[in-house]
Amino acid sequence: MPPEIQKDVEYRLPFTVNNLTININILLPPQFPQEKPVISVFPPIRHHIMDKQGAYVTSPLINSFTMHSDLGKIVQSILDEFWKNPPVLAPNATTFPYLYSKPTGIPTYAQNFPFLSAYLPQETNRSVASVPLGESLSSGYSTDRPAAPSFGMITDLPLPVPTTEALSQGNQNGFGYKMPDVPDVFPELSELSISDLTDMNEQEDILLEQFVNLPQLKHIINDKDDLVKSIEELAKKNLLLEPSLETKRQTILDKYEQLIHLKTTFEKKVQRQHELSESCSASALQARLKVAAHEAEEESDTIAEDFLEGKTEIDDFLSSFMEKRTICHCRRAKEEKLQQAIAMRGQFHAPL
């Protein structure tokens, strides 16, 4: 009997790659998520993220697991790695102690963990592709273009499973091609006598002719021809798209150069706007008014000294002196008004 899957303690995910079905078990410790989970596979496999026995996953994502880690993303990355680099069955992989007895050093885990929802037990020999999409629920973790085929989700635990549609699409592209089944009995050979079979075994030409006429081999050859034709058609389509892609690439380069030019122009204008804004600020205007009022006052004082020294007639003195004094007082009045406005702006924190 298959081992019991405990709610919120142990989860199992059947996974098929290259006609090899493996079960990925996720065991949650009592202090999860403070303690890292234990992820194992059955049957044992050879892979660079597995331990020497091929039973436990030793990925850096598992070793560096923290309470802030996303278990669903970690399992997703493990599945992606299996898709990129398919594992091979470990030699003499007939037993898996973890499934039937507790591993050394791993305590028995209690139930009632609130961190993950229930996971329905599944048959050990059930293929991943046979899981209907109706049993899957949406998950918060998804990718637009995963390294592996498109995935559905089983229960609330974000463990991805390849969908049947994705696998069938992969078969059409030559990925994961399934060899035709070889029958245990060949009817055309059962009608031959022992001497005929002996001659066939001794003469390679006759044996090769019999082998070439096998329907399974013809099926493989037809599939190969269809795949070659589809590849040739795809290559032709790619070649037809090359001119338009090159044109679009050049257009993007031109647009990029235009963007760089516009960016430079914009930065210069922003700098110029900043300089003008600084020169027209309230504090700058007040300083300029103060300087201008002081200059008008000095000019009026100079005119008065020239009049006292007899260098200027009284009519010229009155007209020029009164003009400069008027300008001086106007500028001082404007300075005082601007000073009041600046004080009010500072009081109410409102832009002028």
Automatic annotation (TrEMBL):
InterPro entries: ESCRT_assembly_dom (IPR037202), Helix_hairpin_bin_sf (IPR029012), Mod_r (IPR009851), UBQ-conjugating_enzyme/RWD (IPR016135). The lineage of its organism: Eukaryota, Metazoa, Chordata, Craniata, Vertebrata. Residues 263-352 form the VPS37 C-terminal domain. Keywords: Endosome, Protein transport, Transport. Belongs to the VPS37 family. GO terms for biological process: protein targeting to membrane; protein targeting to vacuole; ubiquitin-dependent protein catabolic process via the multivesicular body sorting pathway. Component of the ESCRT-I complex, a regulator of vesicular trafficking process. Required for the sorting of endocytic ubiquitinated cargos into multivesicular bodies. May be involved in cell growth and differentiation. It comes from Pantherophis guttatus. The gene is VPS37A. One of its GO terms (cellular component) is ESCRT I complex. This is Vacuolar protein sorting-associated protein 37A isoform X4.
